Structures are given as C-alpha cells and as structure tokens.
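Structural prep section.
Before we set up the soaks we want a predicted structure of the protein with magnesium ion in place, mainly to decide which crystallisation condition to try first. Input record follows.
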Amino acid sequence: DAKKAGSNMIRFFSPNMNIMVLDQLLAESRLLRAMDKHEFMMFYQPRLSLKTGRIAGMEALLRWNHPKKGIVSAGKFIRLAEKIGLIQRIGEFVLASVTRQLKVWINQGKTPVPVAINVSSMELRGPKLKESLQYLLQETGLAPQFFEIEITESNLIEDLDRVRQTLTDIRKMGITISIDDFGTGYSSLGYLSSLPADYLKIDSLFIADIVNNRNMASIVETTITLAHSLGMQVIAEGVETAEQLQFLRAKGCDQIQGYYCSRPLSPSGLETFMQRIGEKNTGYIHRE
Ligand code: C2E
Ligand code: MG
Ligand code: MG
Ligand code: MG
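Run finished without errors. Recording the tokens verbatim:
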C-alpha cells in the first residue's frame, strides 16, 4: 500500500543507498581500468592424482592485484566483469598469460602438467573460442595436451546443441574438457551423458560435508560411480582435510583439488611447491 511504498521510497533515496550506488560505480570503473593498468595476473592451483600420488594438473585462476586491497580472488569480481562486458578481454588475457607461462617453464627445462582454463558462458557461446585455441596451438607449437577447458555446468543449459558442437571440436583438437561445479546447476543426467567431457569436477559444496553428512557422502559416492560409467574421471573440488581425502580415495575418486594439497599459488610459489614435492614424493600428503 501507499504507506509501504512511501517507506520504500525513503529507504531507496537514503544516503546509505547513494553510497552503495557510488561504491558500485567506483568498483566498476576500477575494474574496467584494471586491464590497462596490468593489475590482472594468474595463480595456479595444483591437483593431486589419488591413483599415482602425483600432481596431475593445475587450474589457472584469475587474480586482481588491487592497488589497495592486494590480491583479490576471482570469486569476488568475475560476475561484475561479466556484467560490465569485460569477460571477453579477460578470456583473451587468460589464454595469453597461461601460454606465456607454459613457454617460460618449458624453456627452463621443466615439463609442465596440463593447465585448466575456466571459460565463461559468453566465450563458450561466442564464435571465437575455437579459433583462438586453434590459432594459439599453431602459433606456439605447444601440445594440446597442455590445455584443459573448464565449463560450468549451469552455463550449458541454453544453446546446448551449439555448445556441444564447440566442445566436440575443441576436444578433437586434443584439448581436455572438464565440467566444473557439478551438482550446483540444473543437472540433467540426459544432457550430462551427451556432453563430450573427460572430467567431472564435483563442487566443493558437496565435499565440505562428506565426512559428517551421510546424504552428502552418498551423493558424492553415486556421482563418482555415474561419472565413471559415463567414461569420465572425477575431480573433487575444495578438499581441505585428510579425512576427506581418505573418503574420496576409498570411493574411487581420481583426483583432488583444494587447500589440503595446496592453495592457488603465484607462478614462483608453484615452482617452489613443485620442487619441494619432487624432492620428497611421499604418497598422498605433500603438505608440511
Ligand atoms: P572454480 O573454477 O570452481 O574455481 C575453484 C575456486 O575454489 C577458486 O576460487 C579457488 O580459489 C577456490 N578453492 C580452491 N580450493 C579450495 C578449498 O580447498 N576451499 C575453498 N573454500 N575454496 C577453494 P576463485 O579463484 O575465487 O574463483 C572463483 C570462480 O571464478 C571459479 O570457480 C571460476 O568459476 C571463476 N574463475 C576463476 N578464474 C577465472 C578465469 O580466469 N576466467 C573465468 N571466466 N572465470 C574464472
Ligand atoms: Mg574451475
Ligand atoms: Mg568449481
Ligand atoms: Mg566455481
């Protein structure tokens, strides 16, 4: 009614609200300028194979080196980046940055593990992703086995036929495909079975509670069985404890990713980490 509307109006025009709007605008313009100011950088989080006890790959994760706040995680700004139309440029930056890093490591005589790159739904639907990847492989001569693409399950619903074709083409190039955040979107077993994917990544939401919550434990166990029967390997995300690792290993999970193994690291941090675990390769626990 009128009274309610009136009070809403007052709230809408309150000074606090103006500050929030201003904050938002400021955040947007800061983010828009971050690219030109070279404030973006990539961190890398290793993944551990539960079969071999070795690092089987890593995920490239975008970071914003904010002049005041320091290193800011992608989770804090990636949605805003999509909203203000920056995600395409970010995608180009990520590809270039990861490629450059791989070449540095190879030139240093190292054999890098495959790097997984997160791809936004906009990139996935756009016409350029396939060509960018093709061009990149040709131009650099890097083997396609160095690259993986992670797509979020909830990004797949619309345009499924087109997305499926793009993924099939990318996979034919020799690049591995992962379905990220599995369990958080509108999963349909039907379309899951129709997707050309190599890895299924179970979202950290499910992993957080596997030790204490029987329902979560059964969901995870069933998902592992399902993925395997569809010919996919399973990566558990957000593994933070030894108990979670033991559970996942007992249930046949293929790989784990999470703070238990390592936090996302700067390139030099990753080099140190790899050196350390190379020196003492002691089974599943590579942490101090
Ligand atoms: P994601 O692909 O599911 O990435 C995993 C997220 O979980 C990362 O957050 C990582 O830092 C965090 N994480 C890893 N291990 C643990 C753990 O043990 N516990 C907890 N609590 N968290 C853990 P981040 O880096 O903030 O990224 C958030 C999301 O932003 C990513 O989710 C991905 O969807 C997106 N993103 C990240 N980098 C990029 C990028 O380069 N391009 C695009 N388009 N999206 C990106
Ligand atoms: Mg991911
Ligand atoms: Mg995920
Ligand atoms: Mg996520």
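Observations: The two ends are 62 Å apart (CA to CA).
Flagged for discussion at group meeting.
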